[in-house]
Amino acid sequence: MAEVTDLLVYKKKRHRRKIIKTAVAIVLILTVTYVISFFLYEGGADDTGSFISGMLSYQGGSGYPVNSPGGSIVGMYSIDGNLAVLNDTNLFFYGMNGGTNSSIQHKYQNPYLASSGSKILLYGQGGKNYSTYQKGKLIKEGNCEYPIFVGDIASNGKYVIATKGDIVQTVVTLFDEKGEELFTWESADKFPTAVSLSKDANELVVGSVSSDGGQLISTIIFMNTKKDKPVAEVALKDELILSLEHISDETLIITDKQVFICDNKGHILHTYSLEGQTLSGFNADKDSVSLLVGNYQNNRSYEL
After folding, report:
1. For residue range 173-209, what is the model confidence (pLDDT) as tens digits?
2. What is the pTM of this model?
3. What strands, in cross-sheet order, belong to the sheet with 232-237?
């Protein structure tokens, strides 16, 4: 005799299976969302599309070394997990395995590059044109009225450009991602040598040079882009500023005589003196600073 099915029990089992399937689906969705969000955050990607394109960038290539792209190489940079090589005609991007992901052709005679996360500012020093990119995709092309000295870009897409002024010596302007002016600072007697923006573009540091009685004076100006006047200034006599780099809420400054760190109010927190040695090269990022000191021509040795 066939077994009689209890419809009430059957409905309860089917309802239970449906709940379990729904729960499993929700867990899977949350897990995938978490994984993508984690890599977006850790990798510095700005959206899912950037994350996917970044993952794809690791494909291709047979490993390093790779042949030089040719031309006169100006600089090499690490941008959003890729190697970027800038020469006198193009900016090339290479993945983890040495494959060429993309390239940007430029027409700048003296090209310089600044980057933060996936954002790139490319300009010609001494020229009047510049362009901004995200992962190789053009965002903005701009033209300045006067020649460009230096520039920098924040990870949110805001960027700063220091140019020669009409009446004043220097005009430093902060723009939003669309190229709208947000903040301007001018100087009648200071020549800019370096600028650095914080990640949110709320803090701006300008390195400059001037003269006083025939003596070289370097001045570091600390600014809050929400305020009209500088927050603080640090003056250095007979010392040349080589690099400014924001690290969290602090700024790393490298000169030809010392390395030091300041907070956003200009207070010196840490310092390292070169003690009269010649600085022949350096590399600085958020994790470490490397200095190559000495004069090989005279002493046949360097110290790292």
Report:
1. 999 999 999 999 999 999 999 999 999 999 999 999 9
2. 0.76
3. 191-197, 203-212, 215-224, 232-237
3-state secondary structure the chain: CCCCCCHHHHHHHHHHHHHHHHHHHHHHHHHHHHHHHHHHHHHCCCCHHHHHHHHHCCCCCCCCCCCCCCCCEEEEEEECCEEEEEECCEEEEECCCCCEEEEEECCCCCEEEEEECCEEEEEECCCCEEEEEECCEEEEEEECCCCEEEEEECCCCCEEEEEECCCCCEEEEEECCCCCEEEEEEECCCEEEEEEECCCCCEEEEEEEEEECCEEEEEEEEEECCCCCCCEEEEEECCCEEEEEEECCEEEEEECCEEEEEECCCCEEEEEECCCCCEEEEEECCCCEEEEECCHHHHCCCEC
d(CA 119, CA 29): 30
Chain centroid to Cα 108, Å, comes to 20
Task: Find all residues with CB under 8 Å of 142, minimum gap 6, and list them.
Answer: 129, 130, 131, 132, 161, 175, 179
pLDDT digits (tens, 9 = 90+) for 113-165: 999 988 999 999 999 999 999 977 899 999 999 999 999 999 999 999 999 98
Backbone angles phi, psi at 141, to 5 degrees: -110, 130
Q: Which of 139, 140, 160 is nearest to 150 (CA)?
A: 160
Could you give the CA distance from residue 253 to residue 244 in angstroms, rounded to a whole number? 5
5-13 long-range Cβ contacts below 8 angstroms, 24+ apart: none
How far is Cα 190 from Cα 213, in angstroms, rounded to an integer?
A: 14
According to DSSP, the residues that pair with 138 across neighbouring strands are: 133
